[in-house]
Specification:
By secondary structure, this protein is mainly alpha-helical. It has four helices and two strands, in the order E-E-H-H-H-H. A hairpin with a 2-residue loop joins strand 1 and strand 2.
Length: 86
């Protein structure tokens, strides 16, 4: 992730801007929150201003590919079971 430059990534066929204004500590905090089963995308958006698509891009860019796939699978599985999960 490049800081200080507007960077765009493809998410589900849409061009989504990444947030270039996050420090490494904030990126780490977002990753920790996103990996938690007790924190929703709405909570991340309220604290850091990142939409769910931007959070997914941040996670994709900062996790190993297998870790990202595992996380997305878990979020989808729990999201199907619980109405207000992530």
């Amino acid at each position: 992730m490049r800081l200080g430059i507007a960077v765009f990534s493809e998410v589900e066929g849409k061009s989504v801007p990444q947030s270039p204004n996050l420090s490494r500590a904030e990126i780490s905090a977002v990753i920790e929150m996103a990996l938690s089963d007790h924190v929703s995308f709405a909570d991340i958006e309220a604290q850091f201003g990142l939409s769910d698509a931007e959070t997914k891009v941040l996670m994709r860019n900062n996790l190993k590919p297998s870790s990202y796939r595992t996380w997305r699978k878990r979020v989808r599985t729990f999201g199907d079971r619980r109405e207000h999960y992530k």
